[in-house]
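Show me any protein, keeping tokens residue-aligned.
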Amino acid sequence: MLDFRILGRLEVVRDGAAVELTGRRTISALVLLLLEVNRVVPAERMIEALWGEEPPPTAQTALRNTVSQLRKLLGNESIETRPPGYALRVDDDAIDLARVERRLAAAGDARGAERLQLLRDALAEWRGPPFQDIPYATFLQGEARRIEELELLLQESLIDAELEAGADAELVPRIESLVGQHPSRERLRGQLMLALYRSGRQAEALQAYHDARRMLADELGLEPSPALRRLHGSILRQEAALEPAAAPADEPGEMGQLSDVAAALLDGRLVPVLASAPDVAAELAERFAYPAGEVLETSRVSQYAASTRGHGPLHDELRARASAHGEPTAVHRFFASLPPVLRERGLPHQLIVTTDYDGALERAFAEAGEEVDVVAYLAAGPHRGRFCHLTPDGAVRVIEAPSEYAAELSLDRRTVILRVRGRADTSSSGEWESFVVTEDDHLEYLRRADVAAALPVGLAANLRRSHFLFLGYAVRDWCLRLVLGRVCPETPLAYRSWAIAHAPGLAERELWAAVGVDFVGAPLEPYVDALARTVGTEVEA
């Protein structure tokens, strides 16, 4: 049994006894493998990290000796030789950093005492700054900053949980200390304002806002975020919503904002943004150990290609994925169930943004007997760089004059689905070192394209005045914000918006907090079920 502790002085415990680690390169090599646990770390990368840009001719031999030494310390089975390098094979829970990240993710779906305990257990893993005892480990500086950021995020998450549990005055000294260490952190500033207000110190809470505004202007030339400005206004008005309130017992996870989302949905100013389907190429490449990003010999490539020609596990998996691709989910069916509710209340239909081409959303509307207009971006062919309009009667019209194409796309008539997705341009030599083309490759096209100029003027106006509901957002779906940036670049997400995802990771929470988007950690289907009940419609499973 192995246990690795990197959140402080590096420690390794094997079968209950401390392992004595000696030698700078041995320790550094172990840390490299720990940070990529259960993934192959290329030998060339390890050599560069251990010896710098000009390694000695004996570096390969020295690296093998270093790995051999680690195997003696940890057990032969713990480190696997696998081209193009080495992998540390241990259970994720054997590493304190992995335990912390797992608990933080679980805390996103928990409530009350369970959430508090998960966050406190995660913070208890910290014993000090990471990697301080590893000399000359400059290659770890970026990772050290990431881990320090993780600790700060945990501190903020714990303060949020304690505020939700009713704590206030006792939190003020701790938050003030953190604000002193991280003065530009707006989330901490907001937490301080809220704790002061709930402690009966409204004037000090307002002063805390002015301090934050002055610091941001003087140091960074910025105004406070929309979220901080909203909190300031709420404190001025002494809104009852500032007081702690328990989430309804029948709502899973962080669903206390359902009524706000439902209200935005029904007033015609909420644009759902649906995450694309899982990146099958990248997922299967990792699952079947296809070395994405590596240039391979032809013989190796043919081995992988053969597995898709009637035999092999990759072929079987691709067939299974293909049969399920395009099937509507509860999320798709929920939006397809809305038109009757909207018509009954005299409300406009919805504009829905998606980056997927699998047709699941359109199929859900067809199954519900609802017509839709589909506006799709053309990333290839003779009309490349234009949008086309797929009408309910099957006609396809290229939108040559977007400023004049408004009457044909009326939300008063029916739902409009805006599909935006680029294509992978593999013609440019030197950029494609892998035979695996992933979602990111398709979106690289959109990063350069002037999508906004081709968008019908009515849809662009709708986007500019809307809230957004990001559903199923994950790191791989950074494309959602990229797409919005290209479709409507002047939209600063100034209106209140929400992001919903199950077991959100650190990057998701930090990203959305930075732009003032409310993050709800909840499984999508239970969330949609609860939203359907709030709106007053039913969704078939």
Summary: The radius of gyration is 26 Å. The chain has four domains: 1-147, 168-232, 258-277+327-535, 281-323. Residues 281-323 form one domain.
